[in-house]
């Protein structure tokens, strides 16, 4: 089983490595990577999410199970983080980093892994997870950096309504509920667009890796990595067993909580005045360690 999982995950690891090597060798201009990220975020990725939800058979039981597990675990972890913040007097600049390190997720790696391992059924479940979690983790991340109870909540909600990933998912879900069907030619066109998303996204993940400053704060860096890549998926498995969630949904949810944090966490940290260097170190370490931890978790799970 380990060999099978390694074979499935190897292309993901290879594409991330390729992106890193191309960026370090400066074979492509920095403007290319900025353009690639923008194209993927605003066009390719939303189209893929729309297509998966537009043609999927979504069961209400799955939505209820995902809500139950995700919100239970996110609530417990958030409360624990705020308690630790109070005990250790953690400043907002670091606290926002810890919140993102444990709660945010790399959508590119997640979708690629779910698509390779669990195919269409798994992709449908993962799309439901994303629709719920993208708004939730963004709100929690921004609140973690907020120093006063001002009107930032309104701004967060407005930004979320303009998020192309949420829009793609919502439009796909509404199209599914409408009972309409896509014209075969247009569906093939969307499939070709969607096929470009994951390879390009994974290379962009590799290009964003930064390995400077690992010697600084090695202990909290290790804790954030261990907590996200091993602690969170084990907790997710326990919650799934507690609520008697079906095997496929359990597998997808555990995989979701075993993903490294999002590369976009660095940008949000910098915008809100957090410790962006520490965030960059966490993103890079989690992404690299995830190559091994995902295989370990999935070998145990499947």
Task: Please explain how this structure is put together.
It is globular and about 55 Å long. It has 12 helices and no strands. Helices cover 81% and strands 0% of the residues. The protein has a single domain (1-301), classed as Na+/H+ antiporter like fold. 41% of the residues are buried. Helix 1 (2-24) runs antiparallel to helix 12, helix 4 packs across helix 9 (218-242) and helix 5 crosses helix 7 (164-178). With 302 residues, it is mainly alpha-helical. The protein has helices at 2-24, 30-54, 60-88, 92-103, 107-145, 152-161, 164-178, 184-207, 218-242, 247-257, 265-271, 276-301.
DSSP helix fraction: over 70%
Extended strand count: 0
Q: Which shape, going by the Cα principal axes?
A: globular
Count of alpha/pi helices: 12
Name the beta content range.
Answer: under 5%
Kindly report how far apart the N and C termini lie: 8 Å
Q: So, CATH architecture? A: Up-down Bundle
- The tally of structural domains comes to 1
Give the rounded overall mean pLDDT. Answer: 88
List low-pLDDT spans. none
Order of helices and strands: HHHHHHHHHHHH
How does the helix and strand content classify structurally?
mainly alpha
Biggest sheet descriptor:
none
| CATH topology descriptor | Na+/H+ antiporter like fold
Family: Belongs to the auxin efflux carrier (TC 2.A.69) family.
Membrane topology: Multi-pass membrane protein
Organism: Acinetobacter variabilis
Transmembrane segments: 6-22, 42-60, 66-84, 96-118, 124-145, 165-186, 221-244, 250-268, 280-301
